[in-house]
Amino acid sequence: MESLIESLVAQRINFIARMATSCECNHAEDKELALVWIAELSAPYEKRFNSYQSKQESNLLGNEVSGNNILGNAGSRED
Fold first, then answer.
1. Could you report the per-residue pLDDT of 38-51, keeping only the tens digit for each?
2. DSSP string of 3-72?
3. Taking the domains of the chain in order of start, what are their residue ranges?
4. N or C: which end of the chain has fewer CB within 10 A?
């Protein structure tokens, strides 16, 4: 169901963008309103993307740190 909603939002964004760039839309206020609508429609997905991206970066950093600890401990020996 979520992918259906995402698809509808993407279609709406596409439609609004096409209407705003068409020859029939010559008023600056209309174009500004279209940009506001696009921003409102895309805001939740931008937040989700940024959250996903920061999770990926923290996972990469976590793997690097744990990898350094493993390598660091492998070189030390107690004889």
1. 999 999 999 988 89
2. HHHHHHHHHHHHHHHHHHHSTT---HHHHHHHHHHHHHHHHHHHHHHHHHHHHHHHHHHHHHHHHHHHHH
3. 1-46
4. C
Which structure tokens are listed for 13? Answer: 């964004």
| Distance in angstroms (rounded) separating the CA atoms of residues 44 and 50 | 10
Tell me which residue of 34, 3, 37 sits closest to 21, measured CA to CA.
34
**Cα separations (Å) of 22 from 10, 11, 15?**
18, 16, 11
Say how far apart CA 50 and CA 43 lie, in whole Å: 11
Which tokens sit at 12? 């709406």
Which of 76 and 46 is assigned the larger pLDDT? 46
Structure tokens at 10: 């993407």
